[in-house]
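Cross-posting from the modeling subforum.

Setting up a comparison between two proteins and wanted a second pair of eyes on the formatting. Protein 1 (sequence, then structure tokens):
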Amino acid sequence: MQTATSAHPAVRRAPRPRADALRNRERIVTAAREMFTELGPDVPLDDIARRAGVGNATLYRHFPDRDALVREVVCSVLDRAVLAGQDALAESGDAFAALEHFVHASADERIGALCPMVSSSFDKHHPDLEAARERVERIIEEVMDRAKAAGQLRPDVGVGDVMIAVAQLSRPPAGTGCLSADRFVHRHLQLLLDGLRAPGPSVLPGTAVTMEDLRQA
């Protein structure tokens, strides 16, 4: 006598990553973020593995090539900026203070150091990157819209204006080290933020820069 079989076979669940594997992945991403910032996107992967305290085989098991690792680092930095924006909105009752918190926290992530990486030959339109960029755009818009609604942020600036300024000011000038320039970043960011307060003392040339403008640039 045959046993009846189910019309809906059990779905085999993919095994969850082990805790030590997740820790190794996080160590690799952290080490890569630090070394890309300090030495540029072409730093040898073997050096990244050494700083992370893992073997080369472990690094390549998580990230089969440089593009995969660069993409993960970029997404990680963008997601950390999103968390900073969420914290700013949750913790600060002052709308402009939330914008200040977000801008300074984004600079601490050294978003400007991503520029050489995202301008490299890897796929800038990868779904993970697109999703991370959209999350950043949404949180910046929310922070800025709140400050504008409170009458604290001048209305003639756009999300792109803030992103350009943060990226440029958190990226060291040519010929200087990223770490040595860090002590100037927050001073200059605060000068920028003071210039964003409403009412603006002057009329800005051109129009507010949007994220679409940046994508088309």
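Protein 2 (same layout):
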Amino acid sequence: MTRTSENPAAGIGLRILSGFLFAVMSVCIKATSAEIPVGEIVFFRSAFALIPLVVFLWLRAEFPHGLATKRPLGHLLRSSLGAAAMFASFASIARLPLAEATLLGYLSPTFTSIAGVLLLSERITVWRVGGVVLGLAGVLALVWPEIGQGDINGDRLWGYLFGLLMGILTACALIMVRSLSRTENPGAIAFYFVIASMLGGIATIPFGWAMPDSYGLIMLILAGLFGGFAHIALTLAFRHAEASLLAPFEYLAIVWPVIADTLLFDTPLSYAFLTALPLVVSGAAMAAVEGRRRTR
């Protein structure tokens, strides 16, 4: 699609829609996480996300020839990192309130900024340093009230650790996406990531899968479908509008998990979360601004 097809209003609407769909996906995952192992959730989420993705690529005449690649090892590394990030993300969602797990995901731009310096020899700038400082300050504000008093629940501690690991792995995966995008079709990058996640989920069968009841099965299927449609909406959003225009709407996505925690899971917002929220979001915004300034 060429830039003559730009439609900023449509791009903004699709960006907001993608954030909402990702939040609904997370709600479905949270609803099943007490009974279904993480590996099984990853498999179902990936398998059913493949359906809308393949249909989308076929409608764009990019399936199957658009999956051809000259960099199979690059896809393998990116897909493996992305799949590991998905495992960590779902493990965090299972152990933390949805809003807190989502907030930790906003650390990805901060870690991407660090990875750019360490792996790609990019310059250290005020924007990078500011983003890192604010992001880490937000994490400290989130966890310190419990850690400082020594009464943190073990599950919550693991939830925080998995959330941080997810941010690091996502940052590394995004660095690979940045590299692959120079020569590879975005549809191929997404397709191989979904396949790798499915295989990773299947590999956990020996560690025990649970037979879901009808409600759990519906939630698992919906998690995959909503996740697949969310990726499509996100892709189309960036085809209709510049990333700089869509940037502020990325951070609206935190609203949906907050609503879900309050209305669906009866989880009140903690003072620590409300303190950490502006710090983490500001850090992510500074890191994102630096990335877009460098791109321009």
